[in-house]
Design brief:
It is built from 7 helices and no strands. The protein is mostly helical. The protein has 2 domains: about 70 residues, no CATH class; about 50 residues. It is elongated. It starts with a helix and ends in a 6-residue tail after the last helix.
């Protein structure tokens, strides 16, 4: 019979956000249960969460290893909701990216070159050129190649 930790690990790896949160909460509770009131570790484990499950630790290590310049923690820890293609971004971030992309589009319509439009918006918004280029790609994809 599959135990709960294996079930949650499999679910989290397959995009179940609640399972990923459960795993993180279980880890946090284990750490807390193994500390005294002053935050110092007990010499011997105590409480309901007394030992770390090695499978959970392996999962968390894998998640930490995924974090880099291209992968955020919410994606690495399987906390991002997933769509058909991959992780979904928060709607507020999506809206901001679309607004950056639209700003590039407007400059392009005013006869700016692609690169100068990207650079100008990056400077105005204090964002990287790569991020603005990505935002423009998202905008262009979302609105079916308006910039043709």
């Amino acid at each position: 019979m599959i135990d709960l930790i294996v079930e949650k690990l499999d679910a989290a790896k397959n995009g179940d956000v609640e399972a990923a949160r459960w795993l993180i909460k279980d880890f946090v509770e284990t750490v807390k249960q193994n500390r005294d009131r002053e935050g110092k570790p007990h010499r011997k484990p105590s409480g309901t969460h007394t030992q770390f499950d090695e499978r959970l630790l392996d999962y968390l290590v894998e998640c930490f290893e995924k974090i880099d310049k291209l992968t955020t923690a919410d994606i690495a820890f399987n906390l991002a909701a997933k769509g058909r293609i991959g992780p979904k971004i928060k709607s507020s971030i999506h809206a901001k990216q679309l607004s950056h992309g639209f700003a590039v589009y407007r400059l392009r319509q005013a006869n700016h070159s692609f690169e100068s439009a990207i650079e100008e918006i990056a400077q105005q918004e204090k964002k990287s050129v790569a991020l603005i280029r990505k935002a423009y790609g998202l905008f262009n994809k979302q609105f079916k190649n308006w910039d043709t």
